[in-house]
Amino acid sequence: xxxxxxxxxxxxxxxxxxxxxxxxxxxxxxxxxxxxxxxxxxxxxxxxxxxxxxxxxxxxxxxxxxxxxxxxxxxxxxxxxxxxxxxxxxxxxxxxxxxxxxxxxxxxxxxxxxxxxxxxxxxxxxxxxxxxxxxxxxxxxxxxxxxxxxxxxxxxxxxxxxxxxxxxxxxxxxxxxxxxxxxxxxxxxxxxxxxxxxxxxxxxxxxxxxxxxxxxxxxxxxxxxxxxxxxxxxxxxxxxxxxxxxxxxxxxxxxxxxxxxxxxxxxxxxxxxxxxxxxxxxxxxxxxxxxxxxxxxxxxxxxxxxxxxxxxxxxxxxxxxxxxxxxxxxxxxxxxxxxxxxxxxxxxxxxxxxxxxxxxxxxxxxxxxxxxxxxxxxxxxxxxxxxxxxxxxxxxxxxxxxxxxxxxxxxxxxxxxxxxxxxxxxxxxxxxxxxxxxxxxxxxxxxx
Length: 448
What we know:
Blueprint: H1 3-20, H2 35-45, E1 51-55, E2 63-68, E3 78-83, E4 103-104, E5 107-109, H3 117-132, E6 141-146, H4 157-163, H5 165-168, E7 172-175, E8 182-183, E9 189-197, E10 199-208, E11 212-213, H6 223-236, H7 245-254, H8 258-264, H9 270-276, H10 280-290, E12 293-301, E13 307-308, E14 311-320, H11 326-337, E15 344-348, E16 355-356, H12 362-374, E17 379-385, H13 391-394, E18 400-403, H14 413-419, E19 426-428, H15 429-446
Parallel strand pairs: 3-6, 3-7, 7-18, 9-17
Antiparallel strand pairs: 1-2, 2-6, 4-5, 5-19, 8-9, 9-16, 10-14, 10-15, 11-13, 12-14
């Protein structure tokens, strides 16, 4: 069996173990239990020649940092950053056990197979084999398996950046996701690299009314009825599009026919185009990449069936484009609420502006060179993540931070996106091979 086959087998086996550990993060401090996976990865890397350190800011919330020291302190340094926690899964919805880690018809099934235990496993595999082979980089190479990414990183990357910055800081960082091939008109692959992500402004709207007996509803000040109108206005709101650089370079680089590219690049056309685009997954992505969005997600109302509600709490998930701050988000909400604005109190649960890394960097060039070795003629393209990753914290340390991996064509763009926090997550073994070998190639290209 070849060295490459051995590495693929190890990455597959490690991924299966990580899935079976069921490090489910429900947002509470007592969930996650990432110490299970940190322990397995520690055992896997031990003895390979890397320095290992663990951090546990709360019981069971363990992150692992592995380092391969460089020989030149002036050379660029690189971190491969993966998380070990996953979101909950309802087994009744799945074709296979979401925590079984089964290998079926060439794919590993389970929660986290795409988000992002696949990359966490392949990063660890590449780190072990680089170290064991005697590879000695010019700049430091770090691998971090971090806890709590799925719940704002209170016990994960955010904690590490606040508490152990000097232990983890590198010039460059790669985390999830990107790297799924999209064929251009010339037949060559186009692979997105996440260069930034939208801001997170989670908030609670408190809508107040007047209590009363529900047997006499005429002309009552029912907070739930007012909340229903608030929700209707949010759903009807149409924010202004903003076609930022990452979006325009992405669309231009795809080489789409003019009838597709033109509406994606025209602020006057993009809204109607997304509303009528048959490819729903692409329409949602395009809209989210070019607009600050508001989604009502949680509603709490009422105390008893026969009491008119006097208080409703409505939670919103707001994702902002680059350049927005809390003041601009508040102004948008005031615009949405209109004449109801004085009846609503706004309290923010999270206020994190969008973050961006520069596109034209030495790491970008290295990713392009290495990717071409796997997809001849392929091109990497910048992309703005509409979700949140740990890159928003590593950027605060001054690290140029991208999201990437390398995937086969076995999983389509639509399927890839649908599996994040969805059902029937799975990843093909060929994608595990590609990512593992890409990390090794990147380290040898960029750090020597």
